[in-house]
Amino acid sequence: MTPKERAWRVADAPFQPGKLHHTETIYTLGNGYMGLRGTFEEGYPGAIVSTLVHGLYNHPAGELVPDLVNMPNPLPLTIEVDGERFGLDKGQVLGYARTLDLETAILSRGVLWRNSRGTIVAIEFERFTSLAVEELIVQRVSIRPLSGPCSITMAASIDGTQTNFGVTQWGSLTTSSESGAGHSPRIFADGLTAQSQYAVTVASTLLSSVGLVTASEENPLQPDLGVTVALERDQQAIFDKFSAICTSRRSDSPRIAATQILEAASARGFDMLRVAHCAEWAQYWHDSDIQIEGDEAAQRALRFATYHVLIAAPRHDEHVSIGAKTLSGPGYKGHVFWDTELFMLPILTFTQPKLARNLLMYRYHNLAGARHKAREAGFEGAMFPWESTDTGEETTPRWTNPDAEGKRIRIWTGDTEQHISTDIAYAVLQFWRWTGDDEFFVKYGAEIVLDTAVFWGTRAEYQAATDRFELRMQIGPDEYHENIDNSVFTNSMVRWHLGQALDVIAWLEAKHPAAAADLLTRLGIDSTRQDHWRRIIAKMYIPRDAEKGILEQFDGFFNLDPVSLAYWTPRVANMDYILGHEPTQHTKVIKQADVVMLMALLGDDVGTVEERRRNWDYYYPIVDHGSSLSPSTHAWVAARLGLDAEAYDLFMYAGSIDLEDAKGNVRDGIHGAASGGLWEAAVFGFSGLHLTNSEFKVDPRLPAHWRSMSFRIYFQGEQRMIKLIAGQPSG
Amino acid sequence: MTPKERAWRVADAPFQPGKLHHTETIYTLGNGYMGLRGTFEEGYPGAIVSTLVHGLYNHPAGELVPDLVNMPNPLPLTIEVDGERFGLDKGQVLGYARTLDLETAILSRGVLWRNSRGTIVAIEFERFTSLAVEELIVQRVSIRPLSGPCSITMAASIDGTQTNFGVTQWGSLTTSSESGAGHSPRIFADGLTAQSQYAVTVASTLLSSVGLVTASEENPLQPDLGVTVALERDQQAIFDKFSAICTSRRSDSPRIAATQILEAASARGFDMLRVAHCAEWAQYWHDSDIQIEGDEAAQRALRFATYHVLIAAPRHDEHVSIGAKTLSGPGYKGHVFWDTELFMLPILTFTQPKLARNLLMYRYHNLAGARHKAREAGFEGAMFPWESTDTGEETTPRWTNPDAEGKRIRIWTGDTEQHISTDIAYAVLQFWRWTGDDEFFVKYGAEIVLDTAVFWGTRAEYQAATDRFELRMQIGPDEYHENIDNSVFTNSMVRWHLGQALDVIAWLEAKHPAAAADLLTRLGIDSTRQDHWRRIIAKMYIPRDAEKGILEQFDGFFNLDPVSLAYWTPRVANMDYILGHEPTQHTKVIKQADVVMLMALLGDDVGTVEERRRNWDYYYPIVDHGSSLSPSTHAWVAARLGLDAEAYDLFMYAGSIDLEDAKGNVRDGIHGAASGGLWEAAVFGFSGLHLTNSEFKVDPRLPAHWRSMSFRIYFQGEQRMIKLIAGQPSG
């Protein structure tokens, strides 16, 4: 590989079975509509096959919460060489190389394979999820007999037996085929999800450069398109499989829609489809790439992270959002957390504002669910769910599944991790301030900011004894401590949020009086309520040790049992797994530092550099990075505090979580927040990009060995290029 | 990890069972006397345990050739936590991190482990093979109960059941223990190799910071030193295991020697032993490190490669040499090939000349075997064996072991891959010219150069019909073509060799006439013989296509069947494995390019840049890099030809062979020639270091993104520092 290829590619050769699940995840393809794990076309024992479509949830009977439906698998290509089935666990693998080209989002693989009779074939696979036609999956397989003539049987199927780890999502699922004049035969899986009643069609067609393709429904739920050809030595047979996944979320008849997509794809052909796809990706990278000179590993890690946010970001749908594990695996069942707004959204807000807008609109459209949650809990306004799916209702499970001994643990985040409502408001305001998209803000964004403020106004508890407002029973970003009182993160953010809400009202009234009047009326925000907010702002209790000048993460945190993380060296498992869920609550170990998160979001507002440094020095040693969100945030803040070595170390650690499987759990899916967080660490941390009044500025702290860092952002609707040269800041 | 640590460390966390054998090999420790694979102290299912000592060969009955004896394993530490045996395949691994610190050659590993009853312990392992006392292995294990008090049982044993994949090497092997006043108990394995009759003692002692160590011989051939202690929570128990491996190659009584080493080590203690070890390594790196600015991956790869040559290079023994797989695994049974002189030796010649001298002395001491081989084949002088062990006799197997169908293949290299005699002469001359070590050369080196020249003088065949000298039945570096006539590499090198021999004679006669007279008399080199050499030089046939200006690899090569390597894409297996051993001979595919190797060794002598480039263009596309020696040599020559992109790509490929297991066969051991070759590619390729008369010069072609490259070399006995800054050469 050339240096350029090294910086743009993730690759593996030869085949390492021990990395099966890791590579399945990191080679996931996607186009903002669907996500396909990097499983092998021909299958492999133990593979975790996953084909997910944004928004396509179902809540199966007997399960705690809804899950993203694992679609009928559109990838399978069964290849027989002289009657012997090809597989990496069979015959002799004489060659193997797999490459994910991040630049074009194309996954390719070559295999040189010898069957037990000595017949050697070269098989090349290529696939992409089209960025131009997002329901479309394009696959090509080329087969060349190398040792002599041979017979090849290819069966391209749809696997309708796919489940979510044994849980079936379908009320009905039928498979069928169509063979007609004027088109190559097609196969279909038509399903209706059991609870959510989404109609889904997965359809495939196969174009063969040789031989006649025929459809077969011999295998139940696994229809296939088969062709058998006799090939001469070095005669290349090319098979193009086009598949469409359509759902009733988009079209009245998914089957007709899928058929039309296959027709159009067949008419255009592989090469043209590829060109259109690559053109879209070229634009993506033009806008979103960060270029690093002097650090190939950091460069590749950043591109890999950017890739995974981009493939997960919905392009044409404002009713869906990105789950914590993107669409790359089964983890967290595709549920949407604060990870999206505070970690994955910024790269989009700054480089792909249209996509960021879609994600924020998802929250807007789900205000009903948030209002419902607030009402149920006895509050006004909008209280967003901790875990969100297609309905906007809270979908956090209340209990873990029972363990081997039948024990289950109460999950509190859906009840009391309430900061997400402010996180979403923060993201809306960040989007608005940087994009200057007043139209969005006036029509939608302001309502999110204000109705969540309404919630907080009713949520804050006045304590007469101390004449202050408090927030009890909370969970902050550090989830090792549940149902604590007065989270410094939440209290501070709520105070900030209410202040922003008042500013928004003033701005709306000045610039858009009619819209303001309408909105304030609808949300019931009168002057009394605003006065109440002012009182909360003035009297919000922020726990801190005045003497030491350190914020206290929550009431009583300073009195918890000290924990030395060095004591638990070397550690890969999270501390709560080691100590146990309940015992961890009584210790000072934190999953991620709420105070550091606060410093990341509010920066100077939290205090002077010296004050923030004091807080860092207190909290950093007790962070166990139990969350994959943690390292990048800490890298960002470390860079801002001039802790260059720590910043770089944390940045590279964040970059290794998925790429190197540093936490050993990538099999469940990409850590989307770690991906987005890496961009934040680079841009907010190393470049120090920030807003001052109506301008933006940088304040670079590049790692010492970087020669330069360049990136583009949109600012107030205009794209701007920022290039930072080592040692010399420039805007 | 800091950037500095990244550039000095090879590490893995969490534990990946799929990389077991790869990491066993790359984490090998050594000190030029012994090599210990990076297997786990506590064992692991399927582990390839290997403890090798230079020169300790044995030829077991029924085996084709001698093998380096797999010693009784001195590493085992069996740990029980509350009666439950610790292992990575048992209980819960809560943490795992392993690091080979290249700077100090210390392998460390931490494990956080929970047994089935919930007891958690932190276990830290450290080990090194002392560079100060080379028979000594130092291990430390620290155990701390973290969850509460617990009982720890530690058994430090020697595993005398070790074999070479089931083949026993011992005529006798007994184990025993000694417990006496005034010293901690010791255990011993005393063996006598069956055929070679080497006496070996492996001895261990265990120092415990808590509890009383007692010796046990309960397990046959696995004596152990046991201690059981009750530990409080957070009470650290430290166990130091010192082991010695002594052999009759060094001392009359290995057992007494081993006992003395253990006594001395126990008296000094772990910390002092570690200090002494690290001080030696600091000097190694001071002399041998190449520093790259601007390419962390290349920097780490170079250090990793340098490390593996240094740990394999004998420091105090001039009767042993480095096998193709160093002492890191079972591959090639520890046999010594040309890999040593042409790939591993240069880094030593230039940076550790004393070590280089040891390796050349190994060949000097084995001249008897080489003379024997020449005589047996009907020639005069010295004809070095293709595979060499402790006797200096040819030890290349004549046949492969039968495959499943009983087929075996004749191995010809021991008969006809004769260029090694000239390769050794080349290495002697390179050593002499750069070090200026006349004393070595006059006493030893000249005899190697001249007696191998005597061999060639009798080996070259005069063909009256064409009035030229030829060399038939040869194998060149490209071993895909056996028993060919007139290898362009061999013929050219022999011509060069005879010319050098005449120069050496002239120099000797001028500067050391007495020594010259003695040597020439002993070797029978009279003026007639010298005249014969001059005729050979004048009339040596060098196959080439005059019209195209391309050297022909051997007679008839241009007429072989063309092979397109692109046709066989993507390939990991070697082409001879794919096509079959015999069919490959009829094709133009080459394992490595003889002509490129020739250009590497003789540079300008092979032709102008244009001529060499023409040869490159012809041969490079047909090289399959079937040999791990190939990429680095090609990188070196590519750099010299100004093919910067190819040079860097090949350099990084060479660096990945062991570090990334790019060829998938590192389980058998380190590719020592790839390691040494990486240094050659950097120094001879990128820096262009070369000799001009009595000076040295550089002619840098650094990869475009490198900021600088610095290294030290010894030149004529003085150490010189060379720093190349990007874009500007400097000496």
Could you characterize the architecture of this molecule?
2 copies of one chain form a homodimer. With 731 residues, the first copy, chain A, is α+β, with helices and mostly antiparallel strands. Helices cover 36% and strands 22% of the residues of chain A. Chain A is built from 21 helices and 28 strands. In chain A, strands 1-9-10-11-12-19-16-15-14 form a 9-stranded antiparallel β-sheet. Chain A has a 5-stranded antiparallel β-sheet with strand order 8-7-13-18-17, with no helix packed on it. A 3-stranded antiparallel β-sheet of chain A has the order 2-3-4, covered by helices on one side. In chain A, strand 7 and strand 8 (84-85) form a beta hairpin. In chain A, helix 5 (296-312) crosses helix 21 (672-686). Chain A is globular and about 90 Å long. The two termini of chain A are 34 Å apart.
In short:
The first copy, chain A, is α+β, with helices and mostly antiparallel strands and 731 residues long.
* Poorly predicted runs of 5 or more residues of chain A: none
CA-based gyration radius of chain A: 27 Å
Mean pLDDT of chain A: 96
Number of strands of chain A: 28
- Percent of residues in helices of chain A comes to 25-40%
Strand order of the largest sheet of chain A: 1-9-10-11-12-19-16-15-14
Task: Give the termini distance of chain A in whole angstroms.
Answer: 34 Å
The DSSP helix count of chain A reads: 21
Global structural class of chain A: alpha+beta
β-sheet strand percentage of chain A: 15-25%
Q: Name the assembly state.
A: homodimer
The pair of chains with the biggest contact is: A-B, 50 and 50 residues
Largest sheet of chain A: 9 strands, antiparallel
What gross morphology of chain A would you assign? globular
